[in-house]
Amino acid sequence: MIAIVGGGLAGCLLACFLTRRGEEVVLYERRADPRAAGAERGRSINLALSERGLDALRRVDLVADVLAGALPMRGRMIHPVEGETGFQPYSADGTRAINSISRAALNDILLDAAGKSARIVFEHRLTRLDPESGEMRFDTPGGEVHATADVVLGADGAGSAVRGQLLRVGATTESLDFLDYGYKELTIPARAGEFALDPGALHIWPRGRSMMIALPNPDRSFTATLFWPTSGTAGFASLSSPAAVERYFAEHYPDVVPLIPDLVEDYQLNPVGLLGTVRCTSWQSGRAGLIGDAAHAIVPFYGQGANCAFEDVVVLDRCLTEAGGDWARALPLFEAGRRADTEAIARMALANFVEMRDKVASPVFRLGQRIEHSLERLLPGRYVSRYELVSFSTVPYAQVGRRVRRQHGAVAGAGAVAALAVAGVARKLRR
Ligand SMILES: Cc1cc2nc3c(=O)[nH]c(=O)nc-3n(C[C@H](O)[C@H](O)[C@H](O)COP(=O)(O)OP(=O)(O)OC[C@H]3O[C@@H](n4cnc5c(N)ncnc54)[C@H](O)[C@@H]3O)c2cc1C
Are residues 61 and 153 in the same domain? Predict the structure, then answer.
């Protein structure tokens, strides 16, 4: 029996892939069934689902169900403090889109799919694991429960208890790099039954050191997320009174104030979430392995955490095939093949925060983006932007940076050759 700890995005999809291989799977989830319980206040989280996630879902025939509840976003809509909004398409031809979907809705679809072939046990919080024997202990409403599995896969998110147990026995070490930034959600409700903003875009209010984004929901509302410093004058801690909240938004986000009738209440009641990067030296030991955020949580600024977790499932499935179903070989293969990719997306996600909160508003950035899109049209398939490689392809993350550098080198080289040719023709004409 294979035990998966964590019935979130990665755990449920993994259950679908493993039962398809004929494995017997039990999925242990700490929460009550969320399909009955509903979401926590201020923790709705919409995800931007893109090609890597879709590719994984396609393999188990779930992509149509998922996209039925998603809204395509073909570019960024930039909201300056003053003046007109500006739309920046994500792809050269303007047709490619990332998809806004609520994490809860996605989880529900995956729980339904996993429940068809795996046993799902809710309200079981893993508290103890022996990675060598596969013995597990869970806290449940009815008291402590013991179970044993041939393989235990930790898909239990950034604060993983399975990772904690690998740490306890000295099988791994971890580093948790928290940003000095947190996030808080606000809701932009529908206005007279219609979207208050363009639903075909991911909206960004770049404000230098901080920003707000908003993604559309099928009920015609938007979920807005503030990414602000946790302390300091422009941070969450500085706005302690309703008047201070109103003043700050009127000054920095003036176009949003009329769109959020419950601004002060939302701001004061909704929690501030933490943002950080998790790294650990080993993802597996004995019968236990880690996958998704449990192995490598990243900051959300490239919209890739869930996409990456889904791609992990595809890679682990491929490793199992290569290892002839032998888990003792498949888990090390998975770690060896996947680590460089997850490290690459962790770095790109951090770098994208600076791009989103600051650079997207600058004329230099917009010019650069227009040049990139022209090159993509001029050299189809040979020049592809970093954003497209990450969001609209399954090129391994670790190859993206190398490919972008090679393309830049080739373009610079072609530019130099063209300049020399022009100079040569000019010299001949002068003679
Ligand atoms: C603000 C924000 C915005 C984001 N935006 C995007 C985006 O646009 N695109 C994108 O791809 N990703 C995005 N992400 C990241 C994405 O949410 C995560 O990468 C993804 O949810 C990881 O999936 P997972 O299954 O590994 O972990 P999780 O989804 O965290 O699931 C872990 C599961 O394990 C359960 N669990 C935890 N501990 C135990 C235990 N001890 N015993 C049993 N069960 C346990 C939890 O209850 C949960 O169900 C965003 C994240 C945040 C915070």
Answer: yes
92 within some domain: no
Among 355, 384, 401, residue at a domain's last position: 355
Q: For residues 221 and 195, what is the distance between their CA atoms, to the nearest angstrom?
A: 6
The pLDDT of residue 358 is 77
Whether the model clears a pTM of 0.70, i.e. scores above it, the answer is: yes
DSSP 38: -
| 385 in the same domain as 247 | no
Burial label for 165, CB within 10 Å (0-12, 13-18, 19+), is buried
Distance (Å) from CA 319 to ligand 1 centroid? 23
User: What is the C-alpha separation between 84 and 69, in angstroms, rounded?
Assistant: 30
| Closest atom of ligand 1 to CA, residue 6 | 34
Among the listed ranges 23-27, 145-149, 361-365, which one has the minimum average pLDDT value?
Answer: 361-365
Phi, psi of 209 (to 5 degrees): -85, -15
Q: Specify whether the CB–CB gap between 397 and 341 falls below 8 A.
A: yes
The pLDDT value given to residue 209? 86
Domain extent at residue 340: 2-71+97-175+277-355
Three-class SS state of 223: strand
Whether 182 and 265 map to the same domain: the answer is: yes
Closest C-alpha to 179, from 276, 305, 260, 91 = 276
Is residue 152 within 8 Å of residue 131, measured between CB atoms?
yes
214 CA to centre of own chain: 15
Closest ligand 1 atom number to CA of residue 34: 49
Q: Would you give the distance in Å from CA 379 to the centre of its chain?
A: 29
Residue 85 lies in a domain: no
Q: Are residues 120 and 41 in the same domain?
A: yes
Instruction: Name the closest-CA residue to atom 31, ligand 1.
Output: 8
- Report helix angle 305-322 to 9-20, nearest 10: 20
Ligand 1 centroid to Cα of residue 157, in Å, is 5
Give the tokens for residue 21.
Answer: 């291989």
Instruction: Place 41 in a pLDDT band, splitting at 50, 70 and 90.
Output: low
* pLDDT the model gives residue 150: 98
